[in-house]
Amino acid sequence: MAKPRPMTDADYEALALGAWILGTGGGGDPYHSLLEMRTLAREGRTVWLLDPLDLEDDALVAVVGQMGAPLVIQEKMTDAHVMAETIRLMERHLGRRFTAIALWEIGGNNAFQPFLAAALLDLPVVDADAMGRAFPQADMTTFAICDLPSYPWTMVDIRRNTIVFVEAEDWYWMERMTRKACTVFGSVAATCKAPRTGREIKECTILHTVSKAIRIGHVVQHARARHGDPVAALLASEGGLRLFHGKVTDVYRRTTEGYLRGSAEIEGLQEDRGSTFVLDFQNEFVIGRQDGTVRVTAPDLICVLDSVSGDAIGTETLRYGQRVTVVALPAPPLLVSEKGLQHVGPRAFGYDVNFRSVFDGAAW
Amino acid sequence: MAKPRPMTDADYEALALGAWILGTGGGGDPYHSLLEMRTLAREGRTVWLLDPLDLEDDALVAVVGQMGAPLVIQEKMTDAHVMAETIRLMERHLGRRFTAIALWEIGGNNAFQPFLAAALLDLPVVDADAMGRAFPQADMTTFAICDLPSYPWTMVDIRRNTIVFVEAEDWYWMERMTRKACTVFGSVAATCKAPRTGREIKECTILHTVSKAIRIGHVVQHARARHGDPVAALLASEGGLRLFHGKVTDVYRRTTEGYLRGSAEIEGLQEDRGSTFVLDFQNEFVIGRQDGTVRVTAPDLICVLDSVSGDAIGTETLRYGQRVTVVALPAPPLLVSEKGLQHVGPRAFGYDVNFRSVFDGAAW
Description:
homodimer, alpha+beta, CV3147-like fold, CV3147-like, 2 domains, six-stranded mixed sheet, 32% helix
């Protein structure tokens, strides 16, 4: 049984780096939340990281995250107080108190939201999340894959607007309702998702993803410090694959219906010269085609990294001229199960393509 | 002090007729709700009508109504159980019980929603509403005009989706949030609006509008029974004005963003031959122009009636060939006050026109 441990400043720095890579282009750059977390830590607000396997079966766990379009989240931020308020509102609605906070989404900015709220509420954070990466929709979580109830949710914006989604027909309806509300709020809102028991957290999340993100952050940091190749170090550490290396030559991007949608074109350099890689995104990178042929799809993690620094590049910060390396990291097993693929496979994103993992070895 | 009285079958029949006229084209045809009310009455469920002036100051009063596009409400109906559930949900949220139910909107179908819920919940209905007619938006109510709090609201759809809007920045935000949610539900939802005290009902509603609608219904019924002119009888009873008489020659209508918007063209007959009247609507009739000149605007009640039967014609049932009489009924004084006009005057509907009542006698 692992002891709870206090999160350190170094942990947060590494978490920001690693979570942004696990965001697969989405989830929003954690930078602003890292700044806020630094401030809270400097005020002496220590957050403890809890191993999910140490949770009591009947523990009551809050699950929080921002929702919205990454591009908007960069400009119109919620903060720790707004996020904490979603949890307080849920406690008032339930008439019960939470014992811990878990992550909705390890990928991107949402990796920090539980820590920000926890710093104010003095609750531990559970080392687990419901995606193992970032995804654009609530019905793409492990909770949805495991058919756990989707409700209640609370939602708070930066004004005084607060909503409790008391009940929903299913995950699809919860997603529809909350997405529209989020759009009304200007495509960004703070949410406390359906409360979970300790047992549900242990059985229906991706375990230890905070530790994984911190590990990834450290690997990249160390490679940089040694003037090594951070991308190569990441791939070696996580069993990833290098898919393409090139220069961003075109980006088509629009913020619509609470999502950031579009595509990016990358022209090959060096060993990939003469070849073109096109990535479609719906907040996150969903599908990559090389010279017109599908090469990789969700739920495999498709990450676009700065070829030199190994920093993740988000779908909202992609721009002409960037030298990037497209890599794939393996998806957690639950996501590539038959039930998992119904929720997060390419068809769930509207692509008439069967999922075949780049890690299966077979060519497309 | 008036005694509470039981609503009779004859009351409901007259209410349906009168409320539809007060709907000024919107609020939806009460016919289907009348059918449901007849069924509940036949089961022995008697609803008592309460004079608002008899309410204790600290009584807790529910205010309910459907929201959505009238055209949709004709096809996808909520029912008494859904409406009652909005009240039960509000009671759970508040931790208090209601003593009575008031009307959100006397105009159209919403005249019946409090009676349908009351029949199931065994609560009296208060003879007052927050519009004195129908309007498309929450910020167009007497509660908004009186600057009462806009929250909380509960919303229930015909599935299992239920929402509590716990707090809102203002009436405008409450309208935006709930309208979007309503759109997600297919442009129809049942809602329990912000609870009111007895004192607020007495001071910030249009009083005795249920009685008024029933009176209007009786006037039209009696004129028909005597083979008289129901339109003339209505105008005599309510101090109304006949504006135009003609044949509907064109209707432009679209259901968009949870509203029914459009315009209708009427070619003059008899004394109005050679003249054209154009009515714009946003759920309700908002503005009428005769030969290009503004003749009447909200909040004056603009009603389109079947020239023979005196039946109201809704913005969703207007069609080519109908012989209609356009009439105006006086708006309640609160609506034409300076503060009232900020909420329900022509500018609130996007028209760059000052309000001048047709009852002021001055020509436009």
